[in-house]
Every structure is written in C-alpha cells, then in structure tokens.
Write a structure and sequence with these properties.
Shape: globular
Helix content: 55-70%
Number of domains: 1
Strand content: under 5%
Number of strands: 0
Distance between the termini: 13 Å
C-alpha cells in the first residue's frame, strides 16, 4: 500500500485560501474538459475504501469553510468545489499511482485557473 504524498497538505492549504471566483473558474475549466477523462484518471489511482474516505474527509473539511461564500456564486458551487478538489487531491496525494497524463488531467482545472499545484513527484 502506498502512503499519501505529504505535498497534499500544502495543496489543500492553498485551496483553503482560494476566493469563490477561483473555485468558479476551476468549475468552468473542469466542465470544459468533460467528466470522462477526469473520472478515468481518478480511477487509475485505485484508492482503497479507507484511502478514499480519508481523502474525502480532508477535502470536505477544507472546502466546507467556504460554504456561505460559494453559496453566493450559485447552486451547486459547493458540491463542484468539493468534487473538483477531490479529483485534484487524487493526483497530488497519489501521484505515484498515475501516469503523467492522468496527473495532468486531474490537476488541469486548477492549473488553468492559476492555482499552484505541486509538480508530480515519484517517490522511491
């Protein structure tokens, strides 16, 4: 079993500082890409149920703080922020399970919105 990459904490700290408009830009970028490629890349990480649960909790704890702000953007903004961040967190936290292309697909909506994303690092 691979352990979660420590750069995930830094990525989530960055995400916690995003403005609602940045989350909206990430949502638009993700929609433009479409779900198929992102879902396929996420599945390639092959997280166990406990790994997914832990990752999901970390992401939700990070994003829930923005509930009121995201609500002003519109319906579904909170859910989209959680889902988009969870997809990117798969890449950042478990980069060693993904190809370069899969990593890029998962973090692309953040990169296109100008959000710093840790480079893909393979651990020995």
């Amino acid at each position: 079993m691979t352990t979660i990459d420590p750069s995930l904490g830094a990525f989530l700290a960055t995400v916690s500082l995003l403005a609602p408009e940045q989350f909206d830009a990430i949502r638009v970028n993700g929609r433009r890409m479409g779900p198929a490629r992102r879902i396929a890349a996420r599945k390639a990480a092959k997280l166990s149920a406990s790994e997914f649960s832990s990752l999901d909790k970390r992401v939700r704890d990070t994003i829930q703080r923005h509930d009121a702000e995201l609500g002003r953007i519109g319906d579904g903004a909170l859910t989209a922020a959680i889902n988009d961040t969870l997809l990117a967190a798969h890449a950042v936290g478990y980069a060693d399970r993904l190809s370069d292309e899969e990593y890029s697909v998962l973090v692309a909506p953040f990169v296109e919105a100008g959000v710093p994303v840790p480079p893909r690092q393979l651990r020995p």
